[in-house]
Every structure is written in C-alpha cells, then in structure tokens.
Amino acid sequence: MLYGAEHVKRYIETNGEEGHDWQGTTTLILTTTGRKSGKPRSTPLIYRTDGDDYVVVASNGGATEHPLWYRNLLADPEVTVQVKGDRFRARARTASEEEKTRLWPRMAATWPAYDEYQTKTDRSIPVVILQREK
C-alpha cells in the first residue's frame, strides 16, 4: 500500500498511474511551501471536485493539531496540485461554514472515516478548496 513519501514519489514518477486510485478513492498531490523551512512539501490527499475546484480535508486522522500541510497553506496559500498527469498552480482557502456544510457529506461519503475523525477531536476539521489559477 502506498503511503507518505513513497506515495508521492510513485505518483509523480507515473503521472498518477500509481497512487491516484487508492483504497477505493482518489488522491492528488498537494505541494505547499514549508512555513519555517521555505522548502516545497508534498502530501497525497483524498479529493473530490466541486465544479472546477478541488476539495480536500485537513483531518490529520482526528488529531488535536491541524496537519502540517494545512498550517503551511495558511501561511502561504499559493500551492501546486497534481491530479494524475495534470500539474497546476492553485490558491488554497478554507471553506466557509456554508460551503463546509455542503461539502462535508460528499467528502465523508468518499472517505467515511472523516466523520469518525471529527468525533475524536474538539477542533473543527477544515475543508479546503483548491482553486486553479487562470
């Protein structure tokens, strides 16, 4: 099973032939800029589309802290996204409460553990919208 750095490596090397379809769902590669290091940081994330946008969830498995990639994009919302062989610049933003109310059920249908993760933490798990730069 692909996970973490190996997932990113295989995904990039194969333009998503390995790694896009993962455990019954689909993943993209999100590259943020490290808020302390300034270095690119790539993470495989489950996604769904919403119109022209891509949607991911900053669940961190229900941990009390936001995932590092989410903290990085709060510091610098300019990111790179790869979906299969399509690599593009995007602007990341946290979904509004109204957007989250609409998008959360779709994301939880894709990965049911999201609902479980939310019960494990007091933080409101963010839904993130990735908007392709024109």
Task: Please provide a written account of the structure.
- With 134 residues, the chain is an alpha+beta fold.
- Helix content is 29%, strand content 35%.
- Strands 1, 2, 3, 4, 5, 6, 7 and 8 form an 8-stranded antiparallel beta sheet that branches.
- The longest helix has 14 residues, at 97-110.
- The protein is globular.
Q: Helical percent range?
A: 25-40%
Mean pLDDT: 96
CATH topology group:
Pnp Oxidase, Chain A
**Main sheet characteristics:** 8 strands, antiparallel
What are the key terms here?
134 residues; alpha+beta; eight-stranded antiparallel sheet; single chain; globular; Pnp Oxidase, Chain A; 4 helices; 35% strand
Task: Give the topology.
Blueprint: H1 4-13, E1 21-22, E2 25-33, E3 40-46, E4 48-50, E5 53-57, H2 68-75, E6 78-83, E7 86-94, H3 97-110, H4 113-119, E8 127-132
Antiparallel strand pairs: 1-2, 2-3, 2-6, 4-5, 5-8, 6-7, 7-8
At a glance:
The protein has one domain: Electron Transport, Fmn-binding Protein, Chain A (Pnp Oxidase, Chain A). Strands 1, 2, 3, 4, 5, 6, 7 and 8 form an 8-stranded antiparallel β-sheet that branches. The longest helix is centred in the last third of the chain and has 14 residues, at 97-110.
